UniProtKB/TrEMBL annotation:
It comes from Neovison vison. The keyword Secreted applies. This is Corticotropin-releasing factor-binding protein. The gene is CRHBP. Residues 186-307 form the Corticotropin-releasing factor binding protein C-terminal domain. GO terms for cellular component: extracellular space; nucleus; secretory granule; synapse. It comes from the Eukaryota. The keyword Secreted applies. Belongs to the CRF-binding protein family. GO terms for biological process: behavioral response to ethanol; cellular response to calcium ion; cellular response to cAMP; cellular response to estradiol stimulus; cellular response to estrogen stimulus; cellular response to gonadotropin-releasing hormone; cellular response to potassium ion; cellular response to tumor necrosis factor. Binds CRF and inactivates it. May prevent inappropriate pituitary-adrenal stimulation in pregnancy. Residues 1-21 form the signal peptide. It is found in: Secreted. Its main location: secreted. Keywords: Disulfide bond, Glycoprotein, Secreted, Signal.
């Protein structure tokens, strides 16, 4: 299974479990054990192979990672639908409604959420996003085509929709734009390298990796001196206003994850940790007084590394599914 498909498959199955119940989830998991692409069909096969898909039909439950135009047409009442949108970490997502034919008075809806939300857990968390949760939803039935274009605050967004009448639906286009200072992001892949920069802004930024990983931090600049310490929940970084923390847990929301380690002072040179959690987050807290920067590499842990942890390893607090 390719890394990008694993990310999509993992989240869509969680969402299916939330919408349809545990039994339906188990049936789908058994089917996809034989051919995981049965859930998505040939279009996603081509998308994962790298062939651009500029136009295609949207499914009731879908994952989109490429710019293009997408059309949903109901063939029967579709009451619990969602599309997960993800771009590169250094990109914004813009959703543009090209055509909408739904019955808002009859109970249909079409909503964009700025981020991802699953079973009540949000990314970015309420602590890290600049808007309150209620303002992160944009409802077509309230705003109409006065807001034809909606841009996300980070590299992920969601579309929720319900369409009762067969033949009704909507068409929208997705484009991506560069984000010079990405603050919150979800990695599309289980390995990579990223630099998070917060330039004189009072904000919190989280980078999420939805795998058990090895994190290697090569450079951290916070405006004060050297040090790395394991997390003591009662002590933290001792009131320092600028720091980086490593978080881990089974869910999506960084504010509900277990704090694993604090990086309280600037340093140069590798600091490495293995984190055996389903989701790992590098989170920077900034006071706005400094230009803060952290550079890190990450890769997915191999099964033997999860079974035989060594060195700086945090695994026992996470109920890893791998």
């Amino acid at each position: 299974m390719s890394p990008s498909f694993k990310l999509q498959y993992h989240f869509v199955l969680i969402f299916l479990m939330a919408l349809r119940g545990e039994n339906r989830y188990l049936e789908l998991r058994e089917a996809t054990d034989h051919d995981p692409f049965l859930l998505f069909g040939a279009n996603l096969k081509r998308e994962l192979a790298g062939e651009p898909l500029y136009r295609r039909a949207l499914r009731c439950l879908d994952m989109l990672s490429l710019p293009g135009q997408f059309t949903f047409t109901a063939d029967r009442p579709q009451l619990h639908c969602a599309a997960f949108l993800i771009a590169e970490p250094e990109e914004f997502i813009t959703i543009h409604y090209d055509l909408v034919s739904i019955d808002c008075q009859g109970g249909d809806f079409l909503k964009v959420f700025d981020g991802w939300i699953l079973k009540g857990e949000k990314f970015p968390s309420s602590q890290d996003h600049p808007l309150p949760t209620t303002e992160r939803y944009i409802d077509f039935c309230d705003s109409g085509l006065s807001r034809r274009s909606i841009r996300s605050s980070q590299n992920v967004a969601m579309i929720f929709f319900r369409v009762h009448e067969p033949g009704n639906g909507f068409t929208f286009s997705i484009r991506t734009d560069p984000n010079l200072f990405p603050c919150n992001a979800i990695s599309q892949t289980p390995s990579g390298r990223f630099t998070l920069v917060v330039p004189h802004l009072r904000q919190n930024c989280s980078f999420s990796i939805i795998y058990p990983v090895v994190i290697k931090i090569s450079d951290l600049t916070l405006g004060h001196l050297h040090g790395l310490q394991f997390k003591n929940p009662s002590a933290g970084c001792g009131g320092i206003g600028d720091f980086v923390e490593l978080l881990g847990g089974p869910g999506l929301d960084p504010s509900k994850m277990m704090p694993l380690a604090d990086l309280c002072y600037s340093f140069h040179g590798p600091a490495q940790m293995k984190i055996g959690c389903d989701n790992t987050v590098v989170r920077m807290v900034s006071s706005g007084k400094h230009i803060n920067r952290v550079t890190f590499e990450y890769r997915q842990l191999e099964p033997y590394e999860l079974e035989n942890p060594s060195g700086n390893s945090i695994q026992e607090i996470c109920l890893s599914s791998l």
